[in-house]
Amino acid sequence: DARVTQTPRHKVTEMGQEVTMRCQPILGHNTVFWYRQTMMQGLELLAYFRNRAPLDDSGMPKDRFSAEMPDATLATLKIQPSEPRDSAVYFCASGLVPGPSNQPQHFGDGTRLSIL
Amino acid sequence: KNQVEQSPQSLIILEGKNCTLQCNYTVSPFSNLRWYKQDTGRGPVSLTIMTFSENTKSNGRYTATLDADTKQSSLHITASQLSDSASYICVVSVNTNAGKSTFGDGTTLTVKP
Fold it and tell me: From the CA of B67, how many Å to the nearest CA of chain A?
């Protein structure tokens, strides 16, 4: 089965450091999403791209977060500088929109980020 | 404000028993409702997707129902197995641009032998 691949799976770093998370969407999918999941907030949409163009990043703290898609096989989410409150699991998902019968989003297994 | 509320927050059942999870939403205009299963340490996996015109959909032992009039959905799990232990998340989208979705906080199901 095709899968969304995220790297790294785990990241521990000190506050103030730059963090880069990477995502390889499923080949052929035209929409890529970045989510953050915490115990307190659940799943929150940070940003999403359609055909590599950013469509909505209103969920992202823009002073420190940035999301890009340098090509169709790679999406990145960067945090600079990182803060302890950024500790969470970050998920990437991809999908085909519009698609038949409202195709689901396919999620990666996430990057578990801990900022000390 | 668009909201999705799930109940119960957590549930413990014995293996082999059935259970039903609830999802109430105030999202409008409605496009589709999805149920996801999320195992510990993994990403969510889609179980079912229902549009306005569908009121039931099955995926193996999982059956989702939708009442668009009352804005309620349920996920019924039949003959539960230990592997059903997970978080179940209800997601409602307002249009076919799938990024505009509202997520519930999930129900944590524990199946005990």
Answer: 18
With CB atoms and an 8 Å threshold, state whether B99 touches A45: yes
Q: φ, ψ for residue A86 (rounded to 5)?
A: -80, -5
Chain A residues near residue B52 by CB distance under 8 angstroms = none
pLDDT surpassing 60 at residue B99: no
SS3 A85: helix
Cβ neighbours of residue B55 closer than 8 Å, sequence gap 6 or more: B65, B66, B67, B68
Nearest chain B residue (CA) to A45: B99
Q: Please, which residues have CB within 8 angstroms of residue B4's CB and are 6 or more apart in sequence?
A: B23, B24, B25, B26, B27, B90, B91, B92, B102, B103, B104
**Chain A residue with Cα closest to B48:** A104
Q: Do B99 and A102 count as a contact with CB atoms less than 8 A apart?
A: no
Q: CB distance A55–B97 less than 8 Å? A: yes
What's the sign of the alpha-carbon dihedral A99, A108, B21, B91? negative
- pLDDT one-digit tens code per residue, B63-81: 999 999 999 999 999 999 9
CB A40 within 8 A of CB A102: no
